Amino acid sequence: MAMNPVKSCDSNGFTLVEMMVALFIFAMLSVAGVIMLRSAVDSDEVTAGNLSEMAAMQRFISLMESDLSQALPRTYRNDKGDRMPAFASETSGLEAAFLKFTRGGQSNVNGEARSNLERVEYRLTAGNLERWRYRMTDGGAIDPPALLMSEVGSVQLRFRDKRGQWSGDWQGERLVDLPRAIEIQFDKQGRRYRHQFLVGAGYL
């Protein structure tokens, strides 16, 4: 009597359960990949933002250090012809400048008919820390401001006089007097910054 061969229980395909498990694992891997990619992109954006903030801060420090180190005991005349102090700091008014002084060493690459002196102002306008420069030392028009940093809180200053004393406001005995050094403090994005600068190479 012939015997019928026994059929194998193995199959060549996947069962529905196996397919669902495989799809679930693939979906989980895809989600993990997207999360990792998003995290890497976010990290790159944060790093780029931090580097940009650091670069802006360094530019501000370098520029202010250059300006103040070349400050001169030179008075100027305003639009009315009044003689104004060589160094001043204003804390009130719509166009108040927390630093006003004249510096030397202005470059003249175009060979224009002007001196190497430059009258500059530092202002805080609606959270923007700006540098202003006048085309002429006495009177004259003022150029559009250069934005140094944004999102800056209120600025506090201290000035060191020739006796080595620090004060919250600058009152020189003479119109040509300069402070020996200044300290500037401000808030930016929840952090407090403090920097000190020497004023004038000949005032050390």
Give the name of the CATH superfamily of the domain at 67-107 and 114-153.
GSPII I/J protein-like
| Overall pLDDT | 83
Counting helices, strands and paired strands, the structural category is alpha+beta
Query: Which segments are poorly predicted (pLDDT under 50) over 5 or more consecutive residues?
Result: none
Strand residue content: 25-35%
Strand order of the largest sheet: 3-4-5-6-7
Using the 3D structure, state the CATH architecture of the domain at 67-107 and 114-153: Roll
Proportion of helical residues: 25-40%
Overall spatial form: elongated
How far the N terminus sits from the C terminus, by CA atoms, comes to 120 Å
How is the CATH topology of the domain at 67-107 and 114-153 named?
Pili subunits
Highest-level CATH class of the domain at 67-107 and 114-153: Alpha Beta
Order of helices and strands: HEEEEEEEEEEE
The tally of strands reads 11
Report the radius of gyration as a whole number of Å.
33 Å
Describe the overall structure.
This protein has 204 residues and is α+β, with helices and mostly antiparallel strands. It has a domain of 81 residues: Pili subunits, CATH 3.10.610.10. The protein contains 1 helix and 11 strands. β10 and β11 form a beta hairpin. The model has no long low-confidence stretch (mean pLDDT 83).
